[in-house]
Amino acid sequence: MTCHLIALCFDAHDPLRLARFWAGVLGWETAGDPRDGIALLPADDTGFRIRFLPSREPKIGQNPTHFDLTSTSLEDQRATVARSLGLGARHIDVGQRPEEGHVVLADPEGNEFCVIEPGNRFLADCGFIGALASDGSQEAGYFWSEALGWPLVWDQDQETAIRSPHGGPKITWGGPPLMPKTGKDRLHFDLAPPADGNLQAEVERLVSLGATRADIGQGEVDWVVMADPDGHEFCVMPPG
């Protein structure tokens, strides 16, 4: 049995504002969150919610993970960009080349995301959230494939990608060179053991796959903070 990806979490200075931005971009509904944040519930086959958690930590450097949003046409791409800008996004430069067809934006708290041009073959069978594109190693891709029980759908030239058997976005790792880590990640995954599983047993399984326990100042909590082989944090929540 493998654990489940239950949420992608954003650290946010203003969780409600950021949740409203992404609700407007994605067309998802907001919901209360049992852990002092706010959540968005998927309106498609994404398979996990998005959580926005209060944080006072400043954003330092480029996030190692970002959304790749898909487009069905150039008009659709322009509409997504315009909608995002109207909700508070801005254009940014992360070194993209002029000939590249995607548009790079940042949300109101500076979290990067891309609006991909139509005709992208790699994301052709994905929904609006085509991918969670991650800076990371091949080893990290293998780890997450085993951790979630998601098959590899790409493994070439040290670039890897996995996808749930039930569909939804791909999770990709771009291979070396890796960006330097600049503190606690502002985006992280929340995992949970199977409903009949055991938290400690799942933590031990993840350690056997290459994860480590991590201390981010969480104190006494009922979940476990861990890091993948590249050092990026994630949380394992209690079952139920």
> Helices and strands: which structural class?
alpha+beta
Number of strands: 16
Using only C-alpha atoms, the radius of gyration works out to 17 Å
Mean pLDDT: 94
Multimeric state of these chains?
Answer: single chain
For the sheet with most strands, the description reads: 8 strands, mixed
CATH fold descriptor of the domain at 1-57 = 2,3-Dihydroxybiphenyl 1,2-Dioxygenase, domain 1
Strand portion: 25-35%
In DSSP terms (H or I, runs of 4 or more residues), the helix count works out at 4
Name of the CATH class of the domain at 1-57: Alpha Beta
Q: Uncertain regions: pLDDT < 50 for 5+ in a row?
A: none
Distance between the termini: 16 Å
The proportion of residues forming helix, as a percent range, comes to: 10-25%
Q: How is the largest sheet built, in terms of strand order?
A: 2-3-4-1-13-16-15-14
Global geometry: globular
Q: Can you walk through the features of this model?
A:
This protein has helices at about 15-25, 75-85, 140-150, 200-210, and strands spanning about 5-10, 30, 40, 50-55, 65-70, 90, 105, 110-115, 130-135, 150-155, 160-165, 170-175, 185-190, 210-215, 225, 235. It has about 240 residues and is α+β, with helices and mostly antiparallel strands. It has an 8-stranded mixed sheet with strand order 2-3-4-1-13-16-15-14. The two termini are about 15 Å apart. The mean pLDDT is about 95. This is VOC family protein. Pfam families: Glyoxalase_6 (PF18029).
